[in-house]
Amino acid sequence: MTPLNGAIDVHAHYLTPRLRAAMEAAGHSRPDGMPAIPEWTPQLALSTMDGTGVATALLSVSSPGVHFGDDAQARELARAVNDEGAEVVAAHPGRFGLLASLPLPDLDGALTELARACDALGADGITLHTHHAGKRLDHPDHEPLLAELDRRGTAVFLHPTSPPCWEAVSGGLPRPVVEFPFETTRAVTGLVLSGTLQRYPGIRFIVPHAGATLPALADRIAAMSLIAGGPPVDVLGALRGLHYDVAGFPLPRLLPALLTLTENLLYGSDFPFTPDPVVRGLAQLLADTDALTPRQRSAMQRERALGLFPRLG
């Protein structure tokens, strides 16, 4: 018996041979300080999905993404990995969806690939990183992209990446250990306090890793926003309206804290960057925890994801 029941995994990554080669050529054979690029094939993904009870996984490219310094190469790589992702979706009907990659910070290339991915490939949504070349999503340079995402009502999966100053702050640790949670918190805080979420209500953001440090800092951010000098914002209301996947290590402490803020929970595995045995163990913890009511558990596994991705129903 599997721990999950027909779940939809909104935080699942894929690594094609083309992407792996491009990462290695650009010096990312140890992405974000991790020991190695993990192995991934559709068959490996399906084995983990079947072992945990996941019906469908939405595939996205993790950090460091597809832009390694050259706009033309990034456009070509984004197009290639999105095509390859769409091929995986087509080859396994009902088992996979696609959250397409964009070649940011190349804005023109990103807008072109957004239209192609959504209109030609039928992508289920888009993945964006917490910053692109040091510019967070609330930076004015991203306004045309955000406007188009809003017009389309796009589901946007937010994923952390190494901060621009990681050499100074990471303490020699792989950046996912500490820097990724704070990257997520910085990015979402910027979206909230800048009024970006208010201006573009059609974008449906998914925040990873059970909200990172936002559950602990939400009240502080709300209080301090009153003296920050920006537009007046209902911080807690804005955070409450976002969607949060539970990938990573949400138990025993983080998930109960997140539930004081919102019940907009989605299942996430972070496979293959979280290896199969750990994915299975974390799924069992989610199935067994008394932090979730049966209704909350059912909604987290499938129902809320169907609200974002009705095609998967």
Automatic annotation (TrEMBL):
<keyword id="KW-0862">Zinc</keyword>
<dbReference type="GO" id="GO:0047596">
    <property type="term" value="F:6-methylsalicylate decarboxylase activity"/>
</dbReference>
<dbReference type="GO" id="GO:0046872">
    <property type="term" value="F:metal ion binding"/>
</dbReference>
<dbReference type="GO" id="GO:0016787">
    <property type="term" value="F:hydrolase activity"/>
</dbReference>
<keyword id="KW-0456">Lyase</keyword>
<dbReference type="InterPro" id="IPR006680">
    <property type="entry name" value="Amidohydro-rel"/>
</dbReference>
<dbReference type="InterPro" id="IPR032466">
    <property type="entry name" value="Metal_Hydrolase"/>
</dbReference>
<keyword id="KW-0479">Metal-binding</keyword>
<dbReference type="InterPro" id="IPR032465">
    <property type="entry name" value="ACMSD"/>
</dbReference>
<dbReference type="GO" id="GO:0019748">
    <property type="term" value="P:secondary metabolic process"/>
</dbReference>
<dbReference type="Pfam" id="PF04909">
    <property type="entry name" value="Amidohydro_2"/>
</dbReference>
<protein>
    <recommendedName>
        <fullName>6-methylsalicylate decarboxylase</fullName>
        <ecNumber>4.1.1.52</ecNumber>
    </recommendedName>
</protein>
<feature type="domain" description="Amidohydrolase-related">
    <location>
        <begin position="8"/>
        <end position="300"/>
    </location>
</feature>
<dbReference type="GO" id="GO:0005829">
    <property type="term" value="C:cytosol"/>
</dbReference>
<keyword id="KW-0378">Hydrolase</keyword>
